[in-house]
Amino acid sequence: xxxxxxxxxxxxxxxxxxxxxxxxxxxxxxxxxxxxxxxxxxxxxxxxxxxxxxxxxxxxxxxxxxxxxxxxxxxxxxxxxxxxxxxxxxxxxxxxxxxxxxxxxxxxxxxxxxxxxxxxxxxxxxxxxxxxxxxxxxxxxxxxxxxxxxxxxxxxxxxxxxxxxxxxxxxxxxxxxxxxxxxxxxxxxxxxxxxxxxxxxxxxxxxxxxxxxxxxxxx
Length: 219
Fold this sequence. Notes:
The chain has helices at 18-26, 50-59, 77-82, 98-107, 152-166, 184-190, 199-202, 207-218; strands at residues 5-8, 33-38, 64-69, 87-91, 111-116, 134-138, 172-176, 194-197. It has 219 residues and is an alpha/beta fold.
């Protein structure tokens, strides 16, 4: 298999010991930090905002993959870029002018991506795919960590991989929600490049070893 990136979701970290968990990811074989921003409107939950991300950036030695689960994300792109986002993904369902928002992300100096909710078909991206560094497919309904992986995801990944290949692009496919060693290999075989793992990593007895074993499984 090609090199697969692992992005532990900080949403599942221990926020009373956040620096400790950030250092753990720094010292692991993980590739990115996945940062879930929730506003209580686009999704029912509220996670964290600018000050927490700034604190993470202060200690992180790996890229910040910032996933905006917020309404009208275009209002905050420049600010997220300013505080240290390396990649910013916005939901297809959250912004009226997607093309403009992706260009806005790139103009702010970040890599731009689109997120699709569980039941949004990948076909909606056919005319915008060339603007995307990455497409994030939700394998759960967004808003809460620890949910069960939905098997419909495999089919969506295969369809998206075919679309990317047909257009001759190198767009990455990221999966977020319920990723474990029980589905990671199948996701990669379907065409995924980046796997977000939250509870699976942070609830493990040895998170560093869990990341190492996941990487080994996919190498």
